[in-house]
Amino acid sequence: MLALSVTAALAEAPDAVSDGASWQPSSAGQVRERVFAWLDERQIDEATRSKAAELWPVDSPEPSGIELMTRVGETASLVDENAHKLVDLCSKPRADLVPPSQAWLADPQTPPLVANNLRLLYGRWLVHESLFDEAREQLDGLRPEDVVDPASLLFYQGVVHHRLLDKEAGIKAVEGLLAGADQGPRRYAAVARLIEADLKQLKPDSLDHISRRMDDVRRRLDLGRTGEKVCKIEDGVVESLDKLIKELEEQQQQASTADAGSFQPSRPAEDSRIMGGRGPGEVTKRDVGTGSGWGDLPPKQREEALQQIGREFPSHYRGVIEQYFRKLANEGSR
């Protein structure tokens, strides 16, 4: 699956989508100059300045991409307690279901150099922890020119929108990344092309779209999220399945009508007469209810329905339909 490809790329990508067809990565020299200008404004002591200089040696290979962004964060952590806590948080796996608030990143008093790049650093960590809603909150609104690693910004924006099924925003993000593909890591470009192709073929309310939304619900439940937002997504899944099943029933009815209309007898009956038979002429009455009945079908009929749907769609969607039946059955028993 594409999700596995994206995960693998996230694990491997070392460094080098917002908006804009033109962006350029910052050079280490430019970033170093901005960082030390900010440190001068803070009027740091010589000991702290010496530690910062160790992070930005002038006689070693220049960092780029994620390494450049990380050094900005590490430098900020030398002089700012909030930055220190955030950099430490992003250096290890998540320990709590709900990450701590980072309201200071949105504070106008926080210098843009620090706020923007640490929002990217934090957003990247949140993506790796499958906290895509929180990542979107950090990454939305950032532009390539706002950060020292624009390729990572565009890449992680694309990943977030892809996982949250935001088709238009996801395509826009990866197109921005691909517009400067030669400026960033090839891995980013390769995964961005996969995301772009996947989102372009994704159709709302298709079984594929429904299955992904169910996966998103499972992810949220695994994270302990059971609030109104999750319930709304679940309700949307049921509505989409209702619509899909109704369309399937209509297609079957049309096919049956067409088959009946095409039947032509080989020859008429020789004489008009009452045909034999000893049945009493009574039909067992059934209570068919007022609804569709999909949720409380007997096991045998439910299996037949699953097999019918299985002939129309790939086999791995069987679990999606079974979940749907269970949900309707539970709702009916309330």
Number of helices: 14
- The ordered string of helix (H) and strand (E) elements is HHHHHHHHHHHHHH
Question: Nearest-angstrom radius of gyration?
Answer: 29 Å
Uncertain runs are 1-21, 277-295
Fraction of residues in H or I helices: 55-70%
Number of domains: 2
Query: Which word captures the global form?
Result: elongated
Task: Count the E strands.
Answer: 0
- What's the end-to-end separation, in Å? 37 Å
Structural class: mainly alpha
Mean pLDDT: 80
Report the portion of residues in β strands: under 5%
Largest sheet: none
Account of the protein in words:
The chain has two domains: 201 residues, no CATH class; 97 residues, no CATH class. The protein is 62% helix and 0% strand. It has 14 helices and no strands. It is elongated and about 90 Å long.
Helix-strand layout with pairing:
Blueprint: H1 2-12, H2 28-42, H3 46-55, H4 65-79, H5 81-89, H6 112-128, H7 132-139, H8 150-163, H9 167-178, H10 186-201, H11 207-222, H12 228-261, H13 299-312, H14 318-332
Helix pairs in contact: 1-10, 2-4, 3-4, 4-5, 4-6, 6-7, 6-8, 7-8, 8-9, 8-10, 9-10, 11-12
Q: What is the structure about, briefly put?
A:
By secondary structure, the chain is an all-alpha fold. The protein has helices spanning 2-12, 28-42, 46-55, 65-79, 81-89, 112-128, 132-139, 150-163, 167-178, 186-201, 207-222, 228-261, 299-312, 318-332. Helix 7 crosses helix 8 and helix 9 runs antiparallel to helix 10 (186-201).
